[in-house]
């Protein structure tokens, strides 16, 4: 496991640590004050101590693994040996300490992991019990590939009603497995491949029901407690349905004795609906029935005596009351007090009252025994007893009770009827007289008691009242035994104790076999005698969890199911899915299952189309692009979260809740994220807001936690949002498949388009598929989601992400806003959040057409006089101008140059003056034109010129005339060259030392690479993209700038990689200084990087060449 987790691991201070007797065994009684970090294990249950837990026992609490290696620090490993049964707080336990010499007065314990499953695996690997089936695993023979006969003999002893409920692929899988169990002398393994929603659990349940009816002893295991309880519950429900089919829905009892579930009760988390099949519960109930003093024999005898001789019992009762009264009177006389009955009600009890009270007391115990027998004895025992006899006795008792409690019954008359002897026959066919009815009911009860007593005696039920003998009785008589794979190790222990009394299993069934480690499945495969195995799973979903990366890379997590698949073993594919709307199933089916899965008729019906929220964004399937998301690591640094996606998910849930309040139709929502930090953040934000609502459920879990689950609506938060398109373990196809296949009606995926599209994972295909199918939406297109995004940006001081012309804030403004890189850099440097908000509010007002009333806005300096404006925000100024761009027509736009204090404005103006001085008068005049909407708001003007608007004055540098020969001169080519010049002049460069260069080239994730100049995020993505690039953009959008920077950046990287760029003393890359790169001879530097820049414009080529040469000087 990863030792770095000890910082957040459950820990406690030791208050008591004393060695147990006998000494020198290493066992200590340990008590702790209370567990810290008990609830910090994100997405999991609160920590509880279990036997096998491994602790670090140290004199100080270690925060990092390195703390254990410091000089003077004492620590040892300790393993929990035993837990007190009555300790629910997990504060007292016995531990075995590896190094007892380091024990001091002040100690701490830190939980690492539970070693019990690993010990069981180790022991099972060293067994040699069921070698035949193990050989079958390693050397599968041709029988597995043989087809089977579907003739009528296969249907003998099979339940036709449940088989008919299966589709063709499910039925074939069941019949194949049942067919192979007929080979008594041949071991075989059968595989059932069940993709999501294909009825895998239903198929295995019908298989198990038929095995139970054929009395084929079967052990069923699964990798997790949740999985084994799920399949056991499904089988239990089928048994109830079968009982109702055979005996009708009005029968009182269900027989579950053929089904047995065992394991750790706390971890199984059994509900009242399944506790009847739990081993400990069954043993306790049977102990009550088999008790020689208060058990079933006592109950039968007591009822028989009451019905046959109630009058004598009443007389004995009266004598006892009289004796007690005399004793009380004598005691009172001795004290000199006046005698008075203590309980007049008891002393004056009539025969009727006695008979009623006595009957109810005995009948309640008898009914309890009948219920326990009918529920917990196996079906074969019930058949021997006769279920009808059980029901008949129960009804006779009810009938007798009804007569006994009639209001018209007189005590003396009832006493006379009890004095009469019991008549077992000769009753008239029609009898309405109370005495006749009473005798009939009394005779029926006695007859039923006698008959059932003889049947129970013939069954030879256990007479011993120890738990072990009752457990063996339960195992011997159960046809289906359920447990986790790890807990099945207990069967080996029971075989060692008493192999003769333990049953021989014939079949092993492994559910969720693809999630069970191959080595762990050996625990169940080593159970003696069984010859047939059925593995049900899907290797396209999540495999077993392996904490150690080293072990995972070595294949420790591989399942036996995956081994068989890799060997080409035939599988029975369940090829019809009944869970997902076709729009949801389309992508995972085509991507992970090669379009082999069909949509069931239920999901194709019009009733399966649900519209919970208005708008196409919230249809059955949507990818909702979160452009402004920002991933960040949690406090520990082991997981990630994205607060924008959190806000969007919560806003969607709020909208669903509002819609649900109006409809009140049941709705279940699942929020899934692959990152535990994201799960914890969403849970924390939701709190208990929706916990107590009837019909509205919200579950938040990790992808791993949701495997096997399904909800009406699933919202997936992918979290990742970065320039390098790194998606981490999100790239795992199995994890992606699980996440995408949990929804029934609606699946809404939250993610960053750019990050996922460039990730070279299945998510890139998913985004492309969503776009092709018209299921791709931007979150900020929805008004409510856009507001939620802006609110989070403000809350977490991420306002600079909104400074884009097409962002949520500005895309619908009157004025199109263009931000310079200089402004974006200056805005980020503003330390005060309130100042950022004020600047942002000013920009919003300016984009709406508002202008300040003061006229002192112009900046007086050179050519910038008529163009630049300054607007004050407290102690700083926003510098802006009106510019003109061409889209469908020429239009005015608002260009924001910078935000800076007054003393720095002149530097900016001088820097820009060389550009503005080249503007034509016509262009400047158009920039200065003003149009009002009403009296106060300015609106941008537009012009539809037929000819090209000339922005720059028509003068050419004659010194470069030779380089421009052959190029026809026109205004457009000059404008193109000038734009290249402008773009390159506005870049800002920094000095680079050797350390800075090394830092830039060794990013933490090994993904991103900073450049020593200011460009937009979009331009930086293109510059850093390593493959062939096609750039499409209108004039002035920065295409040439990007290409130029790609040339420069590739050359810089080339010299950095060859080790010839920069020294430890530092190298300046500012314009005007000569770089050491240009001075390195090709021969000394080794290989020379040669780059080719092609363009149709010679003047453009000249301009690029000039500026690249300037960058290198």
Number of helices: 40
Order of strands in the sheet with most strands? 9-10-8-11-12-7-13
CATH structural fold name of the largest domain: Rossmann fold
Low-pLDDT segments: 142-146, 150-154, 338-347, 956-1013, 1061-1085
- Main sheet: strands, sense, barrel: 7 strands, parallel
Supply the CATH class of the largest domain: Alpha Beta
Mean pLDDT: 81
- Give me the count of strands: 30
Give the helix proportion (percent range): 40-55%
- Structural class call reads alpha/beta
Ends distance? 53 Å
Tell me the overall shape.
elongated
Cα-atom radius of gyration? 41 Å
Question: What does this protein structure show overall?
Answer:
There is one protein chain. The chain folds into 6 domains: 6-115, Beta Barrel (Thrombin, subunit H), CATH 2.40.10; 127-146 and 157-269 and 474-574, P-loop containing nucleotide triphosphate hydrolases (Rossmann fold); 292-321 and 366-424 and 431-463, no CATH class; 582-790, Rossmann fold; 797-943, YaeB-like fold (2-Layer Sandwich), CATH 3.30.2310.20; 1015-1047 and 1089-1112, no CATH class. Helices cover 41% and strands 14% of the residues. The model is unreliable at 142-146, 150-154, 338-347, 956-1013 and 1061-1085 (pLDDT under 50).
What is the secondary structure topology, with strand pairs?
Layout: E1 11-19, E2 27-32, E3 53-58, E4 75-82, E5 92-97, E6 107-114, H1 116-125, H2 131-138, H3 160-163, H4 168-180, E7 188-193, H5 200-213, E8 218-222, H6 225-247, E9 259-261, H7 265-268, H8 279-290, H9 296-308, H10 310-334, H11 344-347, H12 351-376, H13 379-385, H14 387-404, H15 411-419, H16 434-458, H17 467-477, E10 480-484, H18 489-497, E11 507-510, H19 518-525, E12 532-537, H20 549-553, H21 560-566, E13 572-573, E14 576-577, H22 582-592, E15 598-599, H23 601-604, E16 621-625, E17 631-633, E18 640-642, H24 643-663, E19 667-673, H25 676-686, E20 696-702, H26 703-706, E21 711-717, H27 733-740, E22 743-751, H28 753-757, H29 762-772, E23 776-778, H30 783-795, E24 817-819, H31 821-829, H32 833-848, E25 869-873, E26 876-886, E27 890-901, H33 905-916, H34 921-928, E28 931-933, E29 937-939, E30 942-943, H35 971-985, H36 994-1001, H37 1017-1024, H38 1039-1057, H39 1082-1085, H40 1098-1111
Parallel strand pairs: 7-12, 7-13, 8-10, 8-11, 9-10, 11-12, 14-15, 16-22, 16-23, 19-20, 19-21, 21-22, 24-27
Antiparallel strand pairs: 1-2, 1-6, 2-5, 3-4, 3-6, 4-5, 17-18, 25-26, 26-27, 27-30, 28-29
Helix pairs in contact: 1-19, 4-5, 5-6, 8-12, 8-17, 9-12, 9-16, 12-14, 14-16, 24-25, 24-30, 35-40, 37-38
């Amino acid at each position: 496991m990863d030792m770095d987790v000890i910082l957040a691991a459950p820990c406690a201070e030791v208050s008591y640590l004393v060695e147990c007797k006998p000494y020198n065994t290493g066992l200590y009684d340990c008590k702790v004050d209370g567990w810290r970090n008990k609830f910090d294990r994100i997405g999991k249950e609160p920590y509880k101590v279990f036997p096998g837990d491994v602790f670090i026992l140290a004199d100080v609490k270690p925060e990092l693994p390195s703390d254990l290696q410091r000089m003077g620090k004492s620590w040892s490993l300790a393993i929990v040996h035993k837990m007190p049964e009555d300790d629910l707080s997990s504060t007292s336990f016995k531990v075995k300490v590896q190094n007892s010499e380091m024990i001091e007065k002040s100690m701490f314990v830190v939980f690492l992991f539970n070693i019990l499953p690993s010990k069981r695996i180790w022991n099972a690997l060293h067994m040699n019990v069921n070698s035949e089936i193990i050989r079958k695993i390693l050397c599968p023979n041709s029988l597995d590939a043989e087809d089977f006969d579907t003739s009528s003999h296969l249907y003998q002893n099979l339940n036709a009603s449940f088989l008919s409920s299966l589709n063709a692929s499910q039925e074939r899988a069941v019949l194949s497995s049942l067919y192979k169990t007929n080979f008594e002398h041949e071991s075989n393994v059968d595989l059932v491949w069940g993709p999501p929603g294909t009825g895998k659990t239903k198929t295995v349940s019908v298989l198990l029901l038929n095995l139970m009816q054929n009395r084929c002893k079967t052990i069923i295991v699964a990798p997790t407690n949740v999985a084994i309880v799920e399949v056991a519950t499904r089988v239990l429900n089928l048994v109830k349905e079968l009982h109702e089919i055979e005996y009708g829905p009005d029968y009182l009892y269900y027989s579950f004795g053929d089904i047995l579930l065992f394991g750790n009760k706390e971890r199984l988390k059994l509900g009242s609906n399944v506790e009847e099949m739990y081993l400990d519960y069954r043993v306790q109930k049977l102990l009550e029935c088999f008790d020689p003093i208060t058990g079933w024999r006592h109950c039968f005898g007591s009822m028989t005596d009451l019905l046959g001789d109630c009058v004598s019992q009443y007389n004995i009762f009266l004598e006892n009351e009289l004796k007690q009264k005399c004793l009380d009177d004598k005691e009172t006389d001795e004290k000199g007090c006046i005698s008075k009955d203590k309980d007049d009600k008891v002393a004056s009890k009539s025969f009727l009252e006695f008979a009623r009270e006595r009957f109810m007391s005995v009948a309640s115990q008898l009914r309890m025994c009948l219920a326990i027998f009918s529920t917990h004895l196996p079906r074969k025992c019930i058949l021997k007893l006769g279920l009808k006899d059980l029901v008949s006795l129960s009804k006779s008792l009810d009938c007798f009770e009804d007569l006994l409690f009639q209001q018209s019954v007189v005590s003396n008359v009832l006493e006379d009827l009890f004095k009469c002897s019991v008549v077992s026959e000769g009753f008239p066919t029609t009898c309405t007289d109370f005495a006749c009815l009473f005798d009939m009911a009394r005779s029926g009860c006695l007859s039923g008691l006698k008959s059932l007593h003889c049947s129970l005696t013939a069954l030879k039920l256990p007479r011993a009242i120890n738990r072990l003998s009752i457990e063996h009785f339960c195992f011997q008589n159960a046809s289906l035994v359920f447990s986790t794979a790890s807990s099945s190790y207990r069967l080996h222990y029971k075989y060692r104790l008493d192999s003769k009394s333990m049953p021989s299993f014939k079949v092993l069934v492994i559910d969720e076999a693809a999630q069970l480690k191959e080595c762990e499945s050996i625990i169940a495969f080593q159970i003696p005698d069984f010859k047939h195995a059925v593995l049900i799973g899907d290797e396209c979903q999540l495999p077993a969890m392996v904490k150690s990366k080293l072990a995972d890379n070595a294949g420790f997590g591989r399942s036996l199911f995956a081994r068989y698949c890799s060997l080409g073993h035939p599988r029975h594919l369940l090829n019809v899915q009944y869970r997902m709307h076709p729009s949801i199933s389309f992508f995972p089916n085509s991507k992970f299952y090669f379009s082999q899965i069909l949509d069931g008729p239920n999901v194709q019906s019009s009733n399966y189309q649900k519209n919970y929220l208005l708008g196409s964004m919230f249809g059955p399937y949507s990818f909702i692009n979160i452009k402004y998301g920002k991933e960040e690591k949690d406090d520990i640094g082991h997981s990630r979260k994205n607060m924008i996606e959190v806000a969007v998910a919560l806003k969607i849930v709020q909208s669903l809740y509002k819609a649900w309040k109006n409809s009140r139709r049941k709705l279940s929502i699942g929020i899934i994220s692959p990152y535990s930090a994201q799960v914890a953040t969403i849970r924390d934000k939701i709190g208990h807001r929706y916990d107590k609502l009837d019909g509205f459920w919200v579950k938040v879990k990790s992808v791993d936690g949701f495997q096997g689950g399904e909800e009406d609506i699933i919202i997936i938060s992918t979290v990742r949002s970065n320039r390098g398109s790194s998606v981490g373990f999100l790239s795992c196809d199995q994890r992606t498949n699980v996440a995408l296949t949990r929804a029934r009606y609606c699946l809404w995926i939250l993610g960053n388009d750019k990050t996922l599209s460039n990730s070279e994972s299945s998510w890139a295909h998913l985004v492309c598929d969503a776009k092709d199918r018209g299921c791709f939406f931007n979150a900020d297109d929805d008004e409510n989601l856009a507001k939620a995004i802006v609110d989070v940006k403000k809350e977490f001081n991420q306002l600079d992400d909104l400074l884009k012309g097409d962002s949520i804030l500005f895309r619908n403004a009157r004025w199109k806003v263009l931000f310079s890189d200089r402004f974006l850099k200056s805005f980020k440097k503003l330390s005060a959040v309130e100042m950022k908000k004020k600047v942002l509010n000013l920009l919003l007002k300016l984009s709406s057409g508002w202008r300040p009333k003061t006229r002192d806005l112009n900046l007086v300096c050179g050519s910038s006089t008529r163009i630049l404006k300054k607007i004050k925000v407290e102690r700083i100024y926003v510098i802006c101008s009106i510019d003109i761009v061409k889209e469908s027509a020429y239009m005015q736009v608002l260009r924001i140059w910078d935000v800076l204090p007054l003393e720095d404005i002149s530097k900016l103006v001088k820097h820009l003056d060389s550009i503005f001085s080249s503007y034509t008068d016509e262009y400047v005049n158009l920039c200065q034109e003003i149009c009002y909407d009403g009296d106060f708001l300015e609106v941008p003007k537009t012009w539809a010129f037929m000819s090209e608007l000339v922005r720059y004055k028509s003068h050419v540098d004659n010194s470069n005339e030779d380089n421009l020969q052959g190029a026809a001169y026109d205004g457009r080519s000059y404008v193109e060259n000038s734009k290249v010049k402008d773009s390159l002049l506005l870049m800002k460069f920094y000095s680079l030392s050797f350390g800075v260069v090394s830092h830039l080239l060794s990013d933490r994730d090994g993904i991103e690479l900073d450049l020593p100049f200011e460009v937009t995020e979009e331009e930086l993505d293109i510059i850093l993209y390593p493959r062939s690039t096609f750039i499409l953009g209108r004039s002035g959008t920065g295409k040439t700038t990007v290409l130029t920077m790609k040339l420069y950046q590739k050359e810089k990287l080339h010299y950095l990689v060859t080790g010839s760029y920069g020294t430890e003393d530092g190298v300046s890359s500012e314009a005007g200084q000569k770089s050491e790169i240009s001075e390195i001879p090709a021969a000394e530097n080794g290989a020379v990087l040669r780059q080719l820049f092609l363009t149709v414009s010679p003047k453009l080529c000249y301009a690029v060449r000039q500026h690249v040469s300037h960058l290198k000087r």
